[in-house]
């Protein structure tokens, strides 16, 4: 913890208060006189009078203004030895003095001495003065510090991470795989460095740029690179930091943020996850949220109010642009919307080159092969891939990252942690037939992706896995490709039916059947690939909390609903029959592949296709994909 006088005072105040009460309650009442005359035993007043009558009391010393007596007594009960005994005297004991004189008992009174008056004065004055002085110093320092408790409204100040110099340490060369987005931002950098080039021809500097893309594609990194390239101050804040429990705090923070930004213009203001504060206003069940809506209203005013552009460019990032308020997306606020998509092969290769600079990778490892094997990976996924490979390398006490560690890292990211290999021969053989069924159907269908690996090693919730290498372009998929995927997903269940019988089929195909049903439904309702005709019957995703309906009513009649169910069933049955024919016609090679898989537990795609070539012809398209891999 960082040293500060404020923390010292905060910790000292309770100690001062406790010490004051201890002084008053414990130390002040005790006198030196009393402390030296504490008797070892006590006696009641009645018993004391009996001792006087029996003549056992020899001497009496009275203390504390007649409230306490210390007696010296001798008797058979006391072992015939002189002992000092303490007696608490009643308030009105006037007859005691007379009785002591009549029995010729030595009596001595000891008045209370006022020797601790100075200490009592110190205790009564010093500690309260010290307490008041400490509180005064604490409040004085807190008034000069916006983070102190004395600044009651400091929560309205902006918490932006402000850098007065461009010290982000990131430039465009550090951002790879998103060349189109970088080209858009190069103009923003020119706006910031030399705005006169654009203002001379009447062009206005854009006020806002919205980055849209899936998580991990480099939106935040790209925003930092703009500030690094333009050499301007960089403000960074998350959208969730604006919204607080108290209404008006978020709007106050927006005003404070833009006030600081205008004082340091030109600069970049980066708002991450802007959907936390920029969602649609006044919609959905229960209406809107007053605090969030006021914050959004203030943000809209700051971005396009009565003032012109003061050199402050707002860069925001989100992966949910569909829920943003329309007023936030109009020209004049976010003038440009830049899509930061998942990188293609070239982009993945560039990203891998960036992240491989500080890692010891074996010379036999080709980054292009890794880029080919990781379609759909974002920049964050690729960075995590190389990091996981480095961790596995260190765990195995190796000096360099090899292709073996990279393969394990890919499998772990896609399917989860590696489990314990199967031991039960019956379960192992059943799972082997299931996975080989997927793999052989996918290999023998020309429109299906190529097999990358078949394994019996459990990962995550799966007892076995079959990996296919997805094609690079997933934006356009033909009807034949969708049917091939349905048949590939049915391959495991069909193999169980033919080899073990319908009574022995297992629950292992539950996830496969969900995928089959989903793909068949999309063919009918979304893509118009059925006998119903080229109609889009898919209901849009409902979100009642955004005012988009409850999703309870369909846009088609009950008769069409029956036809949809009939067409889905027809497509699945057709694919199921075709899959059965493939499995039956290749039963010999399936049995051989199962024996090999049980023995080796893992077969890679190249070996799998070489074995099939001995019995049948692999489709031409799969051979072409094999050359790419």
Automatic annotation (TrEMBL):
Predominant subcellular localization, coarse grouping? membrane
What EC number(s) does this enzyme carry? 3.4.24.-
Q: Where is the AAA+ ATPase domain?
A: 205-344
Tell me the cofactor note.
Binds 1 zinc ion per subunit.
Protein residues bound to Zn(2+): 434, 438, 512
The record's PROSITE patterns line, in alphabetical order, gives:
AAA
Q: GO cellular component annotations, sorted alphabetically? A: chloroplast thylakoid membrane
Q: Which residues cross the membrane?
A: 7-26, 117-139
Give the family this protein belongs to, as stated in its UniProt record. In the C-terminal section; belongs to the peptidase M41 family.
Subunit architecture: Homohexamer.
Q: What does this protein do?
A: Acts as a processive, ATP-dependent zinc metallopeptidase.
Q: What is this protein called?
A: ATP-dependent zinc metalloprotease FtsH
The organism that produces this protein has a lineage beginning with: Eukaryota, Rhodophyta, Florideophyceae, Rhodymeniophycidae, Ceramiales
Q: Which gene encodes it?
A: ftsH
């Amino acid at each position: 913890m960082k040293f500060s006088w404020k923390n010292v005072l905060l910790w000292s105040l309770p100690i001062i208060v406790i010490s004051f009460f201890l002084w008053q309650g414990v130390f002040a009442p005790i006198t030196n006189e009393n402390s030296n005359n504490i008797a070892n035993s006590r006696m009641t007043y009645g018993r004391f009078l009996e001792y006087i009558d029996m003549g056992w009391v020899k001497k009496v010393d009275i203390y504390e203004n007649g409230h306490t007596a210390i007696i010296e007594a001798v008797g058979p009960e006391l072992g015939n030895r002189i002992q000092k005994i303490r007696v608490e005297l009643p308030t009105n004991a006037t007859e005691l003095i007379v009785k002591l004189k009549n029995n010729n008992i030595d009596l001595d009174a000891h008045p209370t001495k006022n020797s601790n008056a100075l200490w009592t004065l110190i205790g009564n004055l010093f500690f309260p003065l010290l307490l008041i002085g400490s509180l005064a110093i604490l409040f004085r320092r807190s008034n000069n510090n916006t983070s102190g408790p004395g600044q009651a409204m400091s929560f309205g100040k902006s918490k932006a991470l402000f850098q007065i110099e461009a010290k982000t340490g990131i430039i465009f060369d550090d951002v790879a795989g998103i060349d189109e987005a970088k080209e858009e931002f190069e103009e923003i950098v020119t706006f910031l460095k030399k705005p006169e080039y654009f203002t001379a021809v009447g062009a206005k500097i854009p006020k806002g740029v919205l980055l849209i893309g899936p998580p991990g594609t480099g939106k935040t990194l790209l925003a930092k690179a703009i500030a690094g390239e333009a050499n301007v101050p960089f403000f960074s804040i998350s959208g969730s930091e604006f919204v607080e429990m108290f209404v008006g705090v978020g709007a106050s923070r927006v005003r404070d943020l833009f006030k600081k930004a205008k004082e340091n213009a030109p600069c970049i203001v980066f708002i991450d996850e802007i959907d936390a504060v920029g969602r649609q206003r006044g919609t959905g069940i229960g209406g809107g949220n007053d605090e969030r809506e006021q914050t959004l209203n203030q943000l809209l005013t700051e971005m396009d109010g009565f003032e012109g552009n003061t050199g402050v460019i707002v860069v925001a990032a989100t992966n949910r642009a569909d829920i943003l308020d329309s007023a936030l997306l109009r020209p004049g606020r976010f003038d440009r919307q830049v899509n930061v998509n998942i990188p293609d092969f070239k982009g993945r290769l560039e990203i891998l080159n960036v992240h491989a600079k500080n890692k010891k990778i074996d010379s036999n490892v080709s980054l292009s092969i890794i880029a080919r094997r990781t379609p759909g990976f974002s920049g964050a996924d690729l960075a995590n891939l190389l990091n996981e490979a480095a961790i596995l390398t260190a765990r195995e006490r190796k000096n360099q990252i090899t292709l073996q560690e990279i393969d394990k890292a890919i499998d772990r990211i896609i399917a989860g942690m590696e489990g314990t290999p199967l031991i039960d021969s019956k379960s192992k053989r059943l799972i082997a037939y299931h996975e080989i069924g997927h793999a052989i159907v996918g290999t023998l269908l020309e429109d299906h992706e190529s097999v990358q690996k078949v394994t019996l090693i459990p990962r995550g919730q799966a007892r076995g896995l079959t990996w296919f290498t997805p094609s690079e372009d997933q934006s356009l998929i033909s009807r034949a490709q969708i049917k091939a995927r349905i048949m590939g997903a049915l391959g495991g269940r069909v193999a169980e039916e033919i080899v073990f019988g319908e009574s022995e089929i297992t629950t292992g195909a539950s996830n496969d059947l969900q995928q089959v049903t989903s793909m068949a439904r999309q063919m009918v309702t979304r893509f118009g690939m059925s006998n119903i005709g080229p109609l889009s019957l898919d209901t849009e995703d409902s979100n009642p909390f955004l005012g988009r309906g409850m999703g309870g009513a369909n846009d088609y009649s009950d008769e069409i609903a029956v036809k949809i169910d009939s067409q889905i069933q027809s497509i699945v049955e057709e694919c199921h029959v075709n899959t059965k024919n493939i499995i039956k016609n290749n039963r010999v090679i399936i049995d051989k592949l199962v024996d090999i898989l049980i023995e080796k537990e893992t077969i890679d795609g190249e070996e799998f296709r070489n074995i099939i070539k001995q019995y049948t012809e692999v489709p031409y398209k799969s051979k072409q994909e094999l050359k790419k891999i």
